[in-house]
Design goal:
78% of the residues lie in helices and 0% in strands. By secondary structure, it is an all-alpha fold.
Amino acid sequence: MSAIFNFQSLLTIFLLLICTCAYIRSLAPSILDRNKTGLLGIFWKCARIGERKSPYVAVCCVVMAFSIPFMQ
């Protein structure tokens, strides 16, 4: 089943995007900071969410890590 039609897979993809963007911004901030607007601004916004809401994102990642193997 596609990740678009499965809600749990969609949340997993969204969490991976947030975590990946925050990690890339911590290594090389200039890559994401120059694209704050437009279509590539989505990645900058995901990095900001990952930085500012990191405890909540971490809790969601742990919950998803336990729910994926045991719920399916």
